[in-house]
């Protein structure tokens, strides 16, 4: 019997219903990658070019050609990623993989569209067994200030942080494959109500995942956000989307009969991180550190 599960899209897909077959083998030390996230590893014993990203999932997501190259076949648990009106079929399998500081056997996924063009697979900090994962963004400058945020492990949704704006808790993610800071429609509603401001410019189609673009528009805040001392004067907010259309990350149906409530998500892109030399996920201390120019 074939089971199909619809999954949320947050640059990488949170595999909410899929348990790992085996935990990644723990290691000591720190894994350091540059802003491209490029890293060497293996998939089912075959050499692979991996991309490690701050907003990636705990579950490695392979590109379809890479899945075919190592001989993966669609299994009993099939999945669907939904990006706005676009449905992207996928499947899962259990494989051995290695990455910097990591040897693991667990379930991975792949889809009909590539998740990481130019690479074989996309991984988040949660897919790396090392207790500390650091992204070197730019050369360090003298007198940098370290901004500290609580690390929130969203399970297979990946790792990030969270902030309370009014009553709702909004999830925070860092993304190096996107330039602009963005908010999904859920987060946009909260930010507009609590911070005020005004729309500027016209709507723009910005990338979300799998090459799919969705409309956003710049919103300048009357009262800028300061998240962990890190300023955010404005951002691009998803301008269309409803829960039933599944246009927002984390709002997608996880079974054929039940929907999850939408979650507000803010994504810090390269522009917001342009003054920072490093972004560190310290899983042991449950802390995210941004080292940035004062």
Describe this entry's structure for a reader:
The longest helix has 11 residues, at 185-195. The protein contains two helices and 21 strands. A hairpin with a 2-residue loop joins strand 16 (197-209) and strand 17. Residues 1-27 and 241-260 have low confidence and may be disordered. The N and C termini lie far apart (57 Å). The chain is globular. By secondary structure, the protein is mainly β. It has an eight-stranded mixed beta sheet with strand order 12-13-14-19-15-18-17-16. A six-stranded mixed beta barrel has the order 3-4-9-5-8-7.
Q: Which short descriptors sum up this protein?
A:
6% helix; six-stranded mixed barrel; 294 residues; mainly beta; globular
Q: Briefly, what is this?
A:
The protein has helices at 64-69, 185-195, and strands spanning 3-7, 30-34, 38-43, 46-52, 61-62, 77-83, 86-99, 102-111, 121-123, 132-136, 145-150, 152-153, 159-164, 169-174, 182-183, 197-209, 212-227, 230-238, 265-268, 276-282, 287-292. The protein has 294 residues and is mostly beta strands. It is globular and about 55 Å long.
